[in-house]
Write a structure and sequence with these properties.
By secondary structure, this protein is α+β, with helices and mostly antiparallel strands. The protein contains 25 helices and 5 strands. Strands 4-3-2-1-5 form a 5-stranded antiparallel beta sheet, sandwiched between helices. A hairpin with a 3-residue loop joins strand 3 and strand 4. The longest helix has 28 residues. The chain is elongated and about 135 Å long.
Length: about 550
């Protein structure tokens, strides 16, 4: 007897639930941007008059609805329903079900307006997922965009999300982008993503024209046996339901190809500047795994690019060449950033135009093979390694600069003989005077001549020239792990700037003049001068 009564009670309850589900279906059947308000409010009144709590039925229907239906329910249905339990029930659904990020964001805001406590982390994650979905949506306008650097970055961000958010993004993109989402889905199948089976199930559950087409395309693209088998079973099942399906077997995998190893990045090297203002810049770019293209620039800091030799060599031969140069006592060579190599070549080519020196014909190879720099540099590399203000504040560094000329051949540069000859004659007269001068008088006179020569030679142009030379040698000292000498050289360079130390007070300038006087004395004794009046190195 009790059994019969319970069955009678259960039947009306089941009928009531079915009635509620039918009302919701009727509301959603008219789903549109501008709803029929008369029908909508009529059905809402029916829901409110129902004998049982409709909250769980409506919430469950929300979880199974399309994105368009969910948006309709959030905007036009839920705000007019009065059951308090609806908000709690919907909150439970969004915690468990995968939703399109925009739907999830809108739903969480609805719950906030309904005074429901939500997980703030969930809202933040939903906003981030929606932002990523928008970025992917723009990227998928180009079918090959996923292969770009930006595409790789977005895929990495996508892979870092929880599976529920990944699935929500896929749902949103399928709804918005239709067939254009195929490259992303194919990539998920290729990478055997954890959500790949769920994607197949989602497409199968929708089974509209777009979803069926995507499944057919994925069957062609997918190489994984298990996923391919799952897609095939899904398509057979849809075909048996009367849905039009074309089955295509996946194409046979292409024959294995030799893995192409990416070539190393180009590199560059620079030497110190010799006494005549010349240096070597070497730029290297791998052509194949075994062969290098080598460009050797001979730069002159007066004329510009004097020569350019292009050649090819094996890596081991180039390594031997580097070892040989580095073993040369008079030369220091360091590896430099390729962007800085661009800076030095550009700076030197400007001097070609200024001096009227013809740029070597093979210069086109530099532009063709090395292109443009990643970063356009505005000043010497040493400024990125040391603080100019900090170095200027340490006056003792500048006072130590004359010692560089004694310690390093690379810190001595010859001055223009024609500009020094008159002052050198005065030095000669002091040293060979018939009048016997006291040592303090002789020293004072020599200092006056040295200061005069420094003022005459180190005009604005030559101050800039020596500033750049010292900036370069400071960089090479730093890269060669001679940090203190790098600071001293940089201090001397900064003192040659327009607002620096006067030439006749500049310690490095004065020592350079003194050293050049000594050099002239040695050369005059050997009587080896060129027809042009320049000194020929012995």
């Amino acid at each position: 007897m009790k059994n019969k009564e319970s069955q009678k009670t259960a039947k009306p309850a089941a009928d009531e639930k079915a009635g509620i589900a039918k009302i919701v279906d009727e509301i959603l059947s008219g789903c549109s941007t501008v709803p029929d308000t008369t029908l909508l409010f009529s059905k809402i009144r029916e829901l409110e008059r129902s004998a049982i709590d409709y909250a769980s039925i409506v919430s469950k229907r929300f979880g199974k609805s399309t994105i368009a239906e969910q948006a309709f329910m959030i905007n036009h249905l839920f705000p007019h329903l009065k059951k308090f339990s609806l908000s709690e029930s919907l909150n439970s659904v969004v915690q468990k079900e995968s939703c399109a990020p925009q739907i999830l964001v809108d739903m969480l805001h609805y719950l906030i307006r309904s005074d429901t406590i939500i997980d703030s982390n969930l809202l933040q994650s939903a906003n981030e997922a929606e932002e990523l979905s928008n970025q992917l949506s723009k990227l998928l306008e180009d079918s090959k965009a996923l292969q770009t650097q930006e595409g790789a970055k977005l895929l990495t961000s996508f892979a870092a999300l929880k599976p529920s958010f990944q699935m929500g993004i896929i749902m949103e993109l399928i709804d918005h982008k239709k067939d254009k989402v195929l490259p992303l889905l194919a990539r998920l199948m290729q990478d055997k993503s954890a959500i790949a089976p769920r994607v197949i199930d989602y497409l199968s559950a929708r089974a509209e024209k777009t979803e069926v087409h995507l499944l057919q395309c994925l069957l062609k693209e997918t190489r994984d046996k298990e996923l391919s088998k799952s897609i095939k079973k899904t398509l057979y099942r849809l075909k048996n339901k009367g849905i039009e399906v074309e089955l295509h077997e996946p194409a046979a995998p292409p024959p294995p190809q030799k893995k192409r190893i990416p070539l190393p990045s180009p590199s560059a090297y620079a030497t110190t500047i010799d006494p005549l203002g010349e240096r070597l810049i070497v730029a290297v770019k791998p052509k194949t795994e075994q062969e290098l293209l080598i460009l050797q620039f001979l730069l002159n800091d007066h004329k510009g690019i004097n020569d350019l030799i292009a050649s090819t060599a094996a890596q081991k031969d180039f390594n031997a060449y580097l070892t040989k140069i580095k073993a040369t006592k008079q030369i220091s060579m360091v590896e430099i950033d390729l962007d800085y190599c661009h800076f030095l070549i550009k700076e030197s080519s400007r001097k070609n135009h200024t001096s009227g020196t013809r740029i070597p014909e093979s210069f086109f190879l530099w532009k063709k093979m090395f292109g443009r720099p990643d970063r356009e540099l505005e000043q010497a590399a040493i400024y990125t390694l040391l603080s100019a203000d900090e170095i200027r504040s340490q006056e003792f560094l500048l006072n130590q600069s004359p010692s560089l000329i004694e310690k390093y051949e690379a810190a001595f540069w010859l001055l223009e003989w024609r500009l020094l000859v008159d002052c050198y004659k005065e030095v000669y007269e002091v040293e060979n005077s018939l009048l016997v001068l006291a040592e303090p008088q002789k020293k004072e006179r020599m200092n006056e001549i040295t200061q005069k020569a420094a003022r005459q030679f180190f005009d604005e142009g030559n101050r800039l020239l020596f500033q750049r030379r010292l900036e370069e040698i400071a960089f090479i000292f730093w890269e060669s792990d001679q940090k203190e000498d790098a600071k001293v050289a940089f201090a001397a360079a900064l003192a040659f700037s327009p607002d620096g130390v006067p030439s006749d007070k500049h310690p490095f300038a004065l020592q350079t003049v003194t050293k050049n006087f000594s050099f002239l004395k040695e050369q005059s004794q050997k009587e080896k001068r060129s027809e042009s009046g320049r000194i020929i190195l012995p």
